[in-house]
Every structure is written in structure tokens, then in C-alpha cells.
């Protein structure tokens, strides 16, 4: 039996780029056919357009998704900051994918307490709901970011605390497995650097890069969902799943997206809260990091949550985007596979 067969699923922040890809993959039945999928978010306009998208898919290959969206998919207005609204949504839920977040680095720097309310209090509201009401939730997967590792910006700091809130909750939510996934820049996600570069190239504008040395991990939306599914399928309480993915210099990403065009590259300077390199597993986490297929798995920071068995440490140094950067040619192949928009441009 597949892991999500017959499960009632709640996706917080489900109208985002990850949420929409996650919904499509869930509706395909690859993890089993859920009993219900509920998208929980605060933006009624995004919900409206997402509903239309899933109700009016026309390609023959999307028939099963179209039919399932009629039967399974529903939408609920609410904010993870609002405990009563979130609790009501969770009362008949088996699995929670917690993707709601404030994730734009400069926005979080200028409005740090807003990031605290969404990224930290939102996670605590999920935990509180389970703990105080004995909810039937079996699994919670928190969606985190490489910026949570050795954080220097508000977004990363709040996501690091979100991870700890969810992982610690395993101590007194005995019937629920709470886990996290942590990954880098999703290539085609809303607000990421790649769509900006694509727009600049299309308009023959100069390409704006904040710093020549800057590097990032890059992965597709589907690889991000693969990581979530790997945690659901194989993860244990308190673990954090990290995908093994390509890393590249941002200036090389710009060059790859130019194709045959020759456009000037302008270095604009580092933005508030921006890191030069990202880290997905820190030196301090190495000693409790193991391998699970194509993923690194960080065992819980609290020793009482680790299973009483020996394990083989697989990293001796931090897992950083500054190392093993791929070439411009390899970037072209990676970017072409990541979205229809980028593929058609390439």
C-alpha cells in the first residue's frame, strides 16, 4: 500500500510554487490516492486561480489530474498565524505539509517580526493544535531552506527556529511523526533569480548579479517534491532530509540563460541579509548526518529522539554551495529541464 493512500492531506501555503507542484503530484496517485487534499492559505485570489488551473486542464495526459481535482481537491482560506483557523483545518487531517512561509530575504529583513509570526508562530500553532487537542495527525513535514543552516538573515533565522520547533515537538506528540526537509533555490519558484534573469534576457536588458562570487544550490520543483516524498516514505521522527543537488555560481546561471545573446552583466552589490554561499549541512551537523539514497539525512539534534542504533557518518565537512560548481554547459541542461518557460527559451 502506498504511503498516502486514503489519507486526508493539508497543505499550508499550498498556493505557492511548491504547493502547486505538490498538489499535481499528489493527484497523479504516485503516492496512493488521498481521500482529500486541502490547500490552506490566506490569499483568496491565488486560491481562485489555482482552482481554475486544476479545473481546466486540457491535455490528455492530465485527464487523471483533472478528474481527481474534481473529487479530491478543496481550498480553505486561513492563516497559519491564526490558531483557531489552523486548528479547524487540522481536525480531520492525517498528513500536514507545512509550506506556508515568508521567504523573501530582503522583505524579512525589513519586517522581521512579520517573519517571526509566520515562520515560527505558524509552526508552533501546528504543534499546539496536535498537542492540546489529540488530533489524528500522523505525519508533519516542515518545508525548510538552506538559509536555515548557519543563518545570517532573518528568513534563515526564523526557518532555523521553525525546524527546532517541529523537531522538538516529537517529544510530547507521541502519536505524530514530525520531520523537516531542507533544500536550496528552486529554479522556477515565484520570486527566485531565474525568472528574473529570463525576463531580463527576453527584454535584452543588462543582467543584474549581486556579487560575482555568489553561489547557490539549484533544484527543480519536482526534485523538491521528491525530497518531501522521500521524507514521507522513509523518514523517522525528528529527521531532516536534504537532497544531493547541483551547485553553481549565479553569474554562470546568467551566462547559461543568455544562450547565444551577449548582454552586459552588472554587479549590483549584496542585498540586505544575503549570503555569498549557502550551506545545507553544517560542520556541527556532520557528525549526525547519514545517507539515504540520493539524500543526506540529519538526525535529530536532541539525543533522546535518535533511534538507539549505530550509524555511519557520511560527511566530514559542511555541505556548501561553494564546492563542486557545475559548468555553464551543464547549467544549460539543468535549466532546460526545470520549466516549460525556460525550456522554450533555451
Question: Your description of this structure?
Answer:
With 346 residues, the protein is of the alpha/beta class. It has a single domain (8-345), classed as 3-Layer(aba) Sandwich (Rossmann fold), CATH 3.40.50. Helices cover 39% and strands 20% of the residues. It has helices spanning 17-27, 44-55, 63-72, 83-90, 105-110, 112-133, 154-168, 193-202, 221-234, 250-258, 283-286, 328-336, 340-345; strands spanning 8-12, 36-41, 73-77, 95-98, 139-145, 177-183, 185-186, 207-209, 215-219, 240-243, 246-249, 265-267, 279-281, 289-292, 295-298, 319-320. Strands 3-2-1-4-5-6-10-15-14 form a nine-stranded mixed β-sheet, sandwiched between helices. A three-stranded mixed β-sheet has the order 7-9-11. The model has no long low-confidence stretch (mean pLDDT 90).
Tell me, what is the CATH class?
A: Alpha Beta
Estimated helix fraction:
25-40%
SS elements, strand count: 16
Element order: H for helix, E for strand:
EHEHHEHEHHEHEEHEEHEEHEEHEEEHH
Strands in their spatial order, largest beta sheet: 3-2-1-4-5-6-10-15-14
What's the CATH topology name?
Answer: Rossmann fold
Averaged pLDDT, please?
90
Overall shape: it is globular
- Unreliable parts: none
Structural class: alpha/beta
Largest sheet: 9 strands, mixed
- The figure for the number of domains is 1
Amino acid at each position: 500500500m502506498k504511503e498516502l493512500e486514503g489519507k486526508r492531506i493539508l497543505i499550508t501555503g499550498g498556493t505557492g510554487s511548491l504547493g502547486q507542484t505538490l498538489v499535481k503530484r499528489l493527484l497523479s496517485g504516485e503516492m496512493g490516492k488521498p481521500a482529500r487534499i486541502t490547500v490552506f492559505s490566506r490569499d483568496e485570489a491565488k486560491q481562485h486561480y489555482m482552482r481554475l488551473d486544476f479545473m481546466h486542464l486540457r491535455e490528455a495526459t492530465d485527464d487523471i489530474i483533472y478528474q481527481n481535482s474534481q473529487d479530491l481537491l478543496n481550498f480553505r482560506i486561513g492563516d497559519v498565524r491564526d490558531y483557531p483557523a489552523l486548528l479547524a483545518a487540522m481536525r480531520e487531517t492525517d498528513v500536514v505539509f507545512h509550506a506556508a512561509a515568508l521567504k523573501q530575504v530582503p522583505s524579512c529583513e525589513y519586517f522581521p517580526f512579520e517573519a517571526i509570526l509566520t515562520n515560527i508562530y505558524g509552526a508552533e500553532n501546528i504543534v499546539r493544535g496536535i498537542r492540546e487537542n489529540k488530533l489524528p495527525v500522523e505525519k508533519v513535514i516542515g518545508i525548510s531552506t538552506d538559509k536555515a543552516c548557519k543563518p545570517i538573515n532573518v528568513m534563515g533565522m526564523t526557518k532555523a527556529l521553525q525546524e527546532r520547533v517541529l523537531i522538538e515537538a516529537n517529544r510530547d506528540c507521541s502519536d505524530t511523526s514530525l520531520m523537516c526537509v531542507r533544500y536550496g533555490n528552486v529554479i522556477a519558484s515565484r520570486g527566485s533569480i531565474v525568472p528574473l534573469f529570463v525576463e531580463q534576457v527576453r527584454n535584452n536588458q543588462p543582467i543584474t548579479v549581486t556579487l560575482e562570487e555568489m553561489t547557490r544550490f539549484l533544484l527543480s520543483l519536482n526534485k523538491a517534491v521528491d525530497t518531501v516524498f522521500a521524507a514521507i516514505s522513509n523518514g523517522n521522527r525528528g529527521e531532516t532530509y536534504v537532497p544531493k543537488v547541483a551547485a553553481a555560481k549565479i553569474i554562470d546561471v546568467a551566462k547559461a540563460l543568455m544562450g547565444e545573446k551577449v548582454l552586459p552583466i552588472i554587479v549590483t552589490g549584496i542585498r540586505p541579509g544575503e549570503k555569498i554561499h549557502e550551506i545545507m549541512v553544517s560542520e556541527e551537523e556532520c557528525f549526525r548526518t547519514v545517507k539515504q539514497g540520493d539524500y543526506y539525512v540529519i538526525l535529530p539534534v536532541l539525543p533522546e529522539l535518535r533511534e538507539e542504533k549505530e550509524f555511519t557518518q557520511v560527511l566530514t565537512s559542511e555541505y556548501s554551495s561553494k564546492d563542486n560548481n557545475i559548468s555553464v554547459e551543464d547549467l544549460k541542461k539543468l535549466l532546460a529541464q526545470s520549466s516549460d518557460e525556460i525550456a522554450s527559451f533555451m
